[in-house]
Each structure stands twice: as structure tokens, then as C-alpha cells.
Amino acid sequence: MRVPSLMVVLFALTYNSCKKEPEPIAQETTEFKIDYEKFVLDNGLEVILHEDHSDPIVAVATMMHVGSNREKPGKTGFAHFFEHMSFNDSENVPVGANRKMIPEWGGSRNGGTWSDGTVYYEVVPKDAFEKILWIDSDRFGYMINTVTKEALEREKQVVKNEKRQRVDNAAYGYTDEIIRKYLYPEGHPYSWTVIGALPDLQAATIEDVKEFYNQYYGASNASLVIAGDIDIEETKGLVEKWFGEIPSGPEVEKLQVDPVVLEETKSLYFEDNFAKLPEMRMVFPTVEEYHQDVYALEILGKLLSGSKNAPLYNAIVQEQKLAPNVGTYQSSNELAGEFIFRVRANAGTDLDSVKIAIEKGLTMFETNGVNEKDLKRIKAELETDLYQGVSTVLNKAFQLVQDNEFKGDPGFIVESAKLTEAVTAADVMRVYNQYIKDKNYVMTSVVPKGQLDLAVTNAMPATVWQERVRYNVANEEVGQGAEAVYEKTPTKHDRSEPAFGELPLFKSPEIWRGTLENGLTLYGIENHEVPLVQFDITIPGGQLLDPIGKEGVSSLLSDLMLEGTATKTPAELEEALGLLGATVRMYSDKEDFHITGSCLTKNFEGTMSLVKEIILEPRWDFKEFERLKLALKTNLKGREANPNTIGFNAFNRLVYGENHRFGTPSSGTLESIKEITIKDLKSYYNNLSPKEAKFHIAGAITKEQTEHIVSVLNTWNGYKIAVPHYNLPIANRKGNLYFIDVPDAKQSVIYIGKLVVSAKDENADKLEFANEILGGGSSGRLFQTLRIEKGYTYGAYSGFSKSNEVAPFAVRTSVRANATLKSLEIIKEMLENYQSSFTNDEVKLTKNKILKSNTRAFESLRAQLSILKNISKYNKPDTYIEDTQDALTKMTLNDYRTTINNYLNEEEMIYVVVGDKKLLLHELNKLEKPIIELDIHGNVIDVPAFY
């Protein structure tokens, strides 16, 4: 494995005549940078290449310098809509191939639009590198002639579903629209949201699409980055071939920086149909991206609320207990910026009290100023974030393309790091006084419906356009339509599909093992691409060891153990970790308790000393326990606002039953946490034993170094803990449809499934393979039918989670409310016919997709840590991924059909639908399934009946 150029020199080898000592970890590093080569094609396209041979994959990112800030009032949301249209068809690529073929090559693809730009990106195995240049360049330069009215109308429905899912059907979804409307003057490029208004979208025409393309999608208005396992000189020729004939396009006039000056403070309130908690935001106009004050403003945000010592945290969370947390942060765009205060308060909290607490916190900040140690801590954390942010080839591609297109310097990250490091306490106070103190702002009070008394006094009502959902709307039914008729654009180079290169197959990394004296088992992967380590301690038990009736104990314990140690207050522990640039967190899931972390390799020893202290010397701070319990209550109440969470929790309760641990969320319920005491947490603490625990580590560190440093945990002792087993329920619910009412929901959340297999079952991998065609990403039948063909949803998938316990398979999607029945009928028929419709073509396609996707699936340190956790938890061999690949190649059509018949029988599945009862319930009777109504907690409120 070649070490990329951004890697720093970490280790020095030392020996003596008697024995080999662990290699010391060097403290000095070379200057951080990302090597690249930049050139410009004759058509004006700026190209940046970065060579990294650490994995056989290539990332491609194309940045178009056009976002929603180029739109006109009455045609909002168009940049984002055009991104969607771009993924449809192009002249030299088969119809539908852009969304379907890339996953079949083992790649991933997507796009994103924001106020200032649009990015398209792919990551593929290196054998598909030229294919991705072919398909990406064709999307860029040769798609406009293929646009049809049918494609236009179909994509409108997809984008409208995205808006319903992310905005209309989500708590606080309208807040951004309110802020933009009142912060920016009418007509300002940021005065509307990126996703825009549905009436504007519905009115879009083919002429609008062509006008937008011709104006903004020229090569001279873009940057292209290719990063990964490439040869620079060879790639230059391929880029010239595939992108060189794309028209330059007209010159796009540069937008001028347009900061906002508010003449007065504006206070607005809004009653939110989904919100269960009151939320306040205060937004101050600041400066644009790349302005010299951005770096001080970013640090100001972390100083105000980002630690236990922060003044706003103290005033709001610690002293007055108004909210679980508070956020302050700088958000910059190309033309202007915003500094944001955000508090989602406890249920029933008057937002006037939150506003007063914010003012008190700011007064504390003005009085005390900037603590130099806090400044040092934040800079250490940002150094770690810097390396985390470029730890994959796709992340490096994003960084290079963003800085090239908007700053004109692909390598600006080096200068950015220096500017951050140079920020002084005086700089922070200066920007606070210049942009925040005594300045006007926009404030929003978003409160649950019917709780206007919680809004800030004298706030004015904010209005937003809200869709009225009706059944049987003719203009929302779309279809594939005929292919476009056009004359192909003549090109000098042949634009036929290129052949695959040599197929790279995943090769298991070398895995080392070790054992401490106390029985803690070590698993590691050495990876020197960036000077980081990520680690995980997995202790068996998790939710399974929660006391009956007090589900949530283990989750609360995982929070409390990070609130200080016997010798450190919560603030002191946080500071100690921050000065190392380290992140340590704990969480409890269904079957395990986890202690995880990451840091620069040079700080691993210091980090592990603190981990030892956290494990062995808990503080048992009753005040923090009470705060955390209140925060958990608030968070659980907030989840009642999320239809997806409601559906997920109800589905698990139904498939596992009320008596099985997994029928309850691992963080508990409002009922189960009521009687939890700190004594319960102390009792659970005795389950944290190293005897069956596993320590996993991936990163720039050797086995010898790890063993030497982690040996600090040898003083951690305990006994082997017996983890209880719970019986699975008798499957007596199959065939039922369970309905949960969320009034005025614009979408319906759907879960369909059943319990299938344990991850240790010999058929688990077979089921995963068999699901790939049905719901494995954007090329799956669910996605292709419900989104691409019908326009009913933004996404539709299926799969099953992995655990030692038998886990459920589920189809999951959110669909347009008035397409709920049709979506259910399609899914039902698809499941019923899946076995018979699975052919040898699908056998070949499944093999190809999974084998190739494995080459990119384990690039990151997190993914490599996942390999180690799978090996240790499920007792898999080190080569299990290669073994799985071998088993995949041997699967026959009969194996697939047998697996589908055994595990994916539609008649054995339950249906869960979360949506608007008054619109849907009578209509769902046509599905001819017993309908049982549940409340949002999964309790039956009606007996089985046909409506």
C-alpha cells in the first residue's frame, strides 16, 4: 500500500540489543497538504487530479457554479430541480442508465444543491473509471436534448416528495423558509429556500429547463476533480477525450457579495403541526465564505456553547435547565453569512425564559472574555477534524473542487488551517462586538400546535405556503413516456460505452490480535493513510441487561459516565479530551455497550489514559444524572414528532412483541425512564467487565504500540457476565396492517416486514444477496418503480439489520399521501412475485454489484473498524469478506429462489402505515388486510376490522 503524500512522518524505529521496544510516536508533523495537479481544457473546464493508490477506487466530483442564488422569484427551487433532471437520460447512454448502471458497476453516485452551487459525484472501483468519465461527461454535456415532458413531470413528483419528506412532514421543517424570508430583503438571492416553492416547481416547463442548462451548464462554469487510484498523465488524456468537446457556454456574470444589514430586530412565531417541543433561533447577519472573519466567528460559536464551561451552556442547560443543549455556529455562503443561536427547549418551556438566559450567557461572555485554554482546546479539536475531513478520496475530492470553484485555489485547505491557527482571543472578541453585540437579528419561536403561549412575547405571526393534500389528483399521476426524438450532437471522439478495466477484488486487510492480562481481547488494522486512529471497546450486554420495566438504564449510564470522573468535573474531563483533539463517546445498543473514540495518533496515549479514568473512576454526579434524565425525557418527547421514528418503533414492537427487549427502543420510553434512579445505573455499571469485552482499533499505529498503550487498562477487572435470552413471540400478527394517525401528514411512512435470521445464521449472507435486486439502493426494483417510474417517493429500500438475535427484514419508504394505497399495492405485488421473477440475469447482476462494491466499502477507518467488530462479535475468520465473496460466486438461481421463499414470503409480513387517518384509512380497506389502529406509541386503540 502506497502512503499518500499528505501522510506525515509518525514513527521512528528504535532497537536495543536485548529486545524490541514499542515504537515511540513522534510528536512533530510535516505541513499538512493535499498534492494535486491542475490544468484547464480549451473549453474552460478547470480540472484537478489527485493521485492516491491506497485503495483501488476513484472518486469524481463535478462542481457547477450555480445554485438557488441564480434563480428568479417565481421560479424558485430550479437549480435543485435541474440537478434531479440531470440524472435522467443523455444522448450516448442507455435510457435510465445513469441511476441504475453505476450501482451495478459497484459504485455510488449522488448530487447536491445548495444556495451557491451544485455538485455531482461518484465513487467507483478503478475498473469502471473510464466508464464513469463516459457517463459523467455525457450527463454534463449531452443531456438536454433527451428531456421529455414525461420526464419533466415525473421528476417534479420526486422533488415534491423530497420537500414533503424533509420540510412539510418534519418538525421545524418550515423554519429555514421563515428565516430567509425575514432576514433577506425581497429579491435577494438567499431570500428563498434551496428546495423552493411547490407552485413554482409545478409550473416549470421544458423551455425553462433548456434555458437554465444553456445559461449555466457550460464547461467554463465548472470544476472537475478526479481523486484516487489513477495515473496522472493517462487521466489527462481521458479527461480531454470525454470532457474536451463539451461547449464552454456563455460567460456567467459573477455575483457580488451582498451582506445583509437589518434595520430592526424581527421576532416571528409559527405553530408547527409536528413539533412537540418549542424551539428558538436567533440569526445575525455576518460575512461570506472565505472572508477573514469567518475563522474567528467559527471559533466564537464553539466558545459560546460548545463545552461545559461555555457561558450559554451554563446559563441555559446547567443553571436554569431549560433545554438539553444549545448550539451556536457560523454559516457562510458565497454572498453572505449568518451566525445562528439554536435552542430546542424542554417540553412546555416558555421561550421568553430562553431568550433571557441567552442574554445572561452573553453578558457572562462579555465579562469573562476568551479563556486561552479554551482557545487552545478548540484549535486541537479542529486539527483532528482537518484530517477526519480528508480521510477518504471522496472527501478529498470535495475539498479540492469546492476550494477551486469558489476560491480559485484547490489547495486552500492549507491556508485555511493556518488562518484558523492564527485566530487570537482579541480576534474573537472583535468579531463578537462587530457582528453580535447589540446588533439586530431575526428570531423565530416555533411551538407545538396549540401552544402559542410558549412563543416569545410580542412575536409576530410568520406565514408559509402549505400544500393541501387531496386524493385522486390527476396531474400527479406520471409515467415513463416515450423516449425523446432528437438528432445526436456530432462529436470528434467516439462516445460509445468504454470497456471495463482490470477487475480489482477486495482483499482482506492484515488483522492482528492480542490479549491483555485482564482478558480484554485486542483486534487491529494498521493503516497509515492519515495520522489518525479510531477505536471501539465493545462490552456484551447493552439493552439486554436493562432491568425489566426500566428500559433505558444502559443508555443513561453511557451518558453519565462521560460527565466527569472521580478527580475531574464534567468540564475538566471535556477540556482534557479537547486539548488532545480527541473524541470519546459511549452508547448502548441492543446487544452491546460501546466506548468509542478517535484522535491523532500522537495523542492516543493521552486519550487512553483518560479512557481508563472514565471506565474505572466514574463520578456518579447526581446533579448531572438529573440533568441527563431530563434531557432524555425531552429527546424522547421530541421523537414523537417524527413519523419515521414512530413507524420504526411500532414495527419493532410488533415483530418482537411487548415482552422482548427489542420491542422497546434502546434509549427507553417516557414511561420506562420515569422510575430510573442513579442506583440503577450503579448496579448496571457492574456489568462492564473486560472478560468478554473486545478492543478494536484501526489507524496509523502498530500492534506493539497499541498493546503498550492499551495495557493501561490492565487494572480494569470484573467477572464474566451472563447475558439473558428472551424468547421470540409466536408469529400471530402476519397479514395485518397497522395504522397510526398523524393528522395532516403530507406523506405516509411505510414499513413492511417480518423477523428473518440472526447474523450468525448460515443463511444470513444469502438473504442479504437475495435482497439486493429488490431493495439494495437506487438500482433496486423498489426505488426504480416507486421513484423513477411512478414518482411516488423520494426513496424506497429494503434490507435487514444484523444482530445475534433474529433480526427483522423490512421494506421502508415514505410516499406521497394520496399515493399510499397504490404504493402498497405495488410493494405487495413485488414481494409476491419476487421469487418467480428472479432469473439468472439477476444472479449475475447481484454477483457483479456486490463484488465490485466491496472494493470501496472498506476504505475509511470507520469501515475497517466495522470489519474488526464483525469478526469479534460473530466469530468470523479474518478473511470472512473474501469467504463471503466466494460463497456469492457459487450461489445458483435455485439458491436465490429458495432463500426468497424461506424468508421473504409476503403473506407472513406485517404492514405498518403512519399517515393522515381522515385521508387514508377508508381507502386502505381496498388492500383487503385486517386494519388495526395504533397510537403513536404502538398501543392498540381498535380491534381488527375491515373499513
Description:
By secondary structure, the chain is an alpha+beta fold. The chain has four domains: 37-256, Cytochrome Bc1 Complex, Chain A, domain 1 (2-Layer Sandwich); 266-461, Cytochrome Bc1 Complex, Chain A, domain 1, CATH 3.30.830.10; 511-715, Metalloenzyme, LuxS/M16 peptidase-like (Cytochrome Bc1 Complex, Chain A, domain 1, 2-Layer Sandwich); 737-934, Cytochrome Bc1 Complex, Chain A, domain 1 (2-Layer Sandwich). Helices cover 37% and strands 17% of the residues. The chain has 31 helices and 24 strands. It has a six-stranded mixed sheet, sandwiched between helices. Helix 23 (764-775) crosses helix 27 (840-857) and helix 24 (781-789) packs antiparallel against helix 25 (820-832). The longest helix has 20 residues, at 149-168. Residues 1-20 have low confidence and may be disordered.
